[in-house]
Every structure is written in structure tokens, then in C-alpha cells.
Amino acid sequence: MVPSFDRPKEVTIYNMKKCHLWLSTEEIQPEKLKNATTVVIDVMLATTTLVTIMERGARRIYPVESVYEAHSMKEFLGHPAVLTGGELGGKPVEGFDCAHLPDEYTPERVKDHDIVFLSSNGTRAITKAKPAKQLLLGNLRNAYTIAVIP
Length: 150
Known about the structure:
Layout (H helix, E strand, L loop, with lengths): L9 E2 L7 E2 L16 E5 L4 H10 L4 E5 L2 H11 L4 E7 L2 E2 L14 H4 L3 E5 L3 H7 L5 E5 L4 H6 L2
Parallel strand pairs: 3-8, 4-7, 5-7
Antiparallel strand pairs: 1-2, 5-6
């Protein structure tokens, strides 16, 4: 039998007033983010891929929550420098330009492009966190940078 633990919903850390921790997208309470700095971490892949895309020269990333929304956004943007990418259920989306792995987003492919990106959990979490005063994408590669942002 796996033991169950009651985990804290609020933790006081150093000089921070409060730190809310939500372990799933469904737990996020957007109303608590209004004046907060929020870090979205999708440990499996999305935030790592999104940060990599920006590092490699993309102009903008548009996180979306469905295949329909991705196609609609690409059509709305209406210029040739738009790529669709991402995954659903851990599998590439048929008809998208790229899947979800960082290596697919080479500098040659994404430089000066807008990326419409879909993921099973990460982009939903980003969308729910939009009310935040400051929204950051965290991952294991940029953990130190996120930690030292004032």
C-alpha cells in the first residue's frame, strides 16, 4: 500500500509572502494569481521545448488548448512565418509542422517565426496562469535563472 501524505497548499519561504503550489492544471486557481509572479513547470516536456524555441530565435509563441484553436490561430495570423507544433497524449499531432521535442525546433527552422504550440498539460497550465502579474516558464535547464529573478 502506498502511503498518503497531506501536502501543504501554502508554504512560507524566506521573505516571500506566500507560495502556492499546484501539482496539476486542474488545481490552478487563476483568481489567486492576479498580483503574483507565477512559474509554470511542465516537468515532462512543454516548458523545456518552449524555452528552447525562444532560445533558438522564434519571434513569439502562442500556447493553445486544442488542435482546432491551433489551426484557427495559424489562419488568423495569416503569414507564412507561422509554424504549428506540439503533442496530444504524448504523440505528435497529425498535420502540425513539428512535434513536441526540443530538437525539432532548430534555429534554422524557427528563427523569426511565430510558433503556435499545443500540449496535453503545459499549454493549458499557461492559459490558466495568464492572470498572473508575471508569468515565467520553468524547467530543469533554467531553474537557477527562474530562482534569481526578482
